[in-house]
Amino acid sequence: MTAAGLPLTLSAAPAVGPTDLATLFAELGPAVSGYLGACGCGAVEDVLGEVFVRVAKALPRFEGSSAGLRSWVFTIAYRCMVDQHRWVRRQQRLLRRLPGPAAAPAPAEPLDPELVRALSSLTPEQRQVITLRFVADLSLQEVADITGKPVGSVKSLQRRGLDALKAALAPQ
Amino acid sequence: MRVRGPYPRGACRRLLHMENLEGDQQILDRLQNLARQSMDPAMATRVLERARRRPRPWWRSTKAKVGAGVAGGFFAGSFGLASAGALPAPVQEAAHSTLAAVGISVPPGHNRYNGPECGGTYANHGAYVRAHKGDPAAAQSRCGKPTVANSPASGASTSPPESGRPGKSGRHGPPPWAHGQGKPGSDSTESPDDSTEPPETTSPGAAPSVAPTAGTQVNPAAPATTTTTAAPAPTTTVAPPTTTTSSSSTTSSTTTSTVPPTTTTAP
After folding, report:
1. pTM for the whole thing?
2. How far apart are the first and last CA of chain B?
3. Fewer CB within 10 Å, N side or C side of chain A?
4. pLDDT digit string (tens) for A40-80?
5. How many structural domains does chain A have?
6. Between chains, do A1 and B35 touch, taking CB under 8 Å as contact?
7. Does pLDDT of B120 surpass 80?
8. Measured between CA atoms, how close is B45 to chain A, in angstroms?
9. Residue B34 and residue A48: Cβ atoms within 8 Å?
């Protein structure tokens, strides 16, 4: 998937209209949703909504090309997902202290359950790099910028992640 | 001679082929398919509705309200304490100078003597002495010392004494009657030790003090204290917010009462 076909010139737009946001959502919503699902996010709809709330809020200030817009949206998605993971961890710590059974939300059935299960067997860093690189379709440099790692480390994590994924998906 | 690089040959080979994704095409296709999945239209509508919703203005957020309340309470409390003169002296002095710039008068903190002979304004006496190291009389000077005991309101003169020691109404040294200068209270011009404190009520064994002199400052906020001694003839005393004492040497009983400024008729 490429961002070349994104029919938006948002840097010149003074404000985000409903059409702009709808177009952006139609273009990037499935990719962000797939990225969140591949990362093992339990509440995909909540996080997706939070991502696009932040996008709609900050879109008037965005300056850059369509490729930059795609990277920017996935940066927001990455941060929202990190927030979500922290929130889930806090809730789990709290629920461990409280009496009664822990009521965890049931995750939605992913499109490719076997692949998502194999992804969950990777280390968190490898999974982040693999999903950002191939599900979100970002370049090595963009993944390095989002995760705050050097490009060499991203390459290494990508290689090891792919090898581990291949091993996990291999027929037993 | 063979030159070896910093990395082993195997590691170099792995680095060279790190980006070679030819053998992983099947996994990559499956990964990319995750991003092409169709979304549930109901979910897409809900997400879009949520994103289009007008964000709540910042001033309606709870954090902003709590922050504004805390800041307002802090400023109100600080202003109240400064108005009451209850802040620590340096802070009170800072509040005095700061609020004076905007036309609000609050009591000062340290009121230091910085007369014309001091040649400047000094934070305290030590600063004055340090600034005049060559002057042997600097230590005896009043410059930079608090003027509480020597303020005009306490009835003493503002000029420094010749000896540099506090005068009769000063706070230092023994009381005046310790040197045989007369009985306590015999000098009608003697003022109480601290004019800012509320006047003390008379006790039966102590010599009663007289009405305050012209130079005596009485705190108007303090309640007026009227000491009324039973006298043979009824006297009517109009008590302003000052100390009024009427006494009789022949009486044996003394009553002390604290009343607000009013007219009291004592039989």
Report:
1. 0.48
2. 128
3. C
4. 877 888 899 999 989 988 888 888 888 888 999 999 999 99
5. 2
6. yes
7. yes
8. 10
9. no
